[in-house]
Every structure is written in structure tokens, then in C-alpha cells.
């Protein structure tokens, strides 16, 4: 009988402690991906990055067209010659072919450099946006006495999103 009373008291105390512990922690969630996509700064950054990417792409495409035109011109030049004439001008044709290979390598290198530049620009443009969002989330959470904020972005590890959604409050804080 005493052991049943002790067990009952222990269970009641445990449930009371558990409910008190849960009541003290305030948890909220926010879809950071949605928030970031709706920010004017993000839209402007995306526009600038797309414009830069288009410029680089046009440059690479123009270089590739030039390379193709030179390769076709060399091919056309050799089509009209006899084997003896080709053999006589072999050094000239080999030099032109080598120049085309160098040009192709330069285009590939430029393409890689453009990709690196784009990645750097993207990091430069997005880092302040992410920091601004992080700071706004921290401020809103602190203002509302929230202990934990979970990211509700798909794949963010959130299973249940029944807590308070901070998206409207953080958007208000950011003026969007």
C-alpha cells in the first residue's frame, strides 16, 4: 500500500514537473526561406546576379561562336586543297589548330573564372541579408519572450508547426 502511494506521488510530481517545464519554454516557428524570398533586398540581389550571369554567358557564347567560325574557316581552307598542298602547308595548319586549342582552353578558363566571380558576388550580396533576417528573428523572439524558434522551411527538421508563427511579426519588423 505504501509503495502504491509512493508511486502515485512520484507520478503526480513527475507530471507536475513536466507540465511546469513545458509551460516555461515558449517555442515558435518561422519559414525563413519564404521570408528571405519576400524581402526586397533579396529580389534586388537576385536581379543583379541574374544580370551579371547573363553578361558573362553572352561573353562566353560570343567567344565560342568566334572559335567555331575560325575552326570552320580552317576546315574549309583545307577542303579545297590537295593532299600535296596540305602537306606543303602542314606547319601553317598545325599552328592554326594549336591556336584554336589555346583559344578553347582560354574560353574554358574564362568560364570557370566567371563562375567563381558569380559565387563570390552571391556570397557578398546574400550574407548581409541573412544577417538582417537572423537579427530580426532574434529581436522578435526576445520581444515576445520566445525561447526557441524552429525553422519551418521544408527539410528544416520541423515535424509539428502548431506553435506561434513568427513570419508576420518578423516581416513587420523588416518593413515588408
From TrEMBL:
Gene3D superfamilies associated with the record: Skp domain
Molecular functions (GO terms): unfolded protein binding
InterPro entries: Chaperone_Skp (IPR005632), Skp_dom_sf (IPR024930)
Coiled coil: 42-113
Signal peptide coordinates: 1-23
SUPFAM superfamilies: OmpH-like
Keywords: Coiled coil, Signal
Gene Ontology CC terms, in alphabetical order: cytosol
Pfam families assigned to the protein according to its UniProt record, in alphabetical order: OmpH (PF03938)
GO biological process, one term: protein stabilization
Assigned protein family: Belongs to the Skp family.
Protein name: Membrane protein
Species annotation: Neptunitalea chrysea
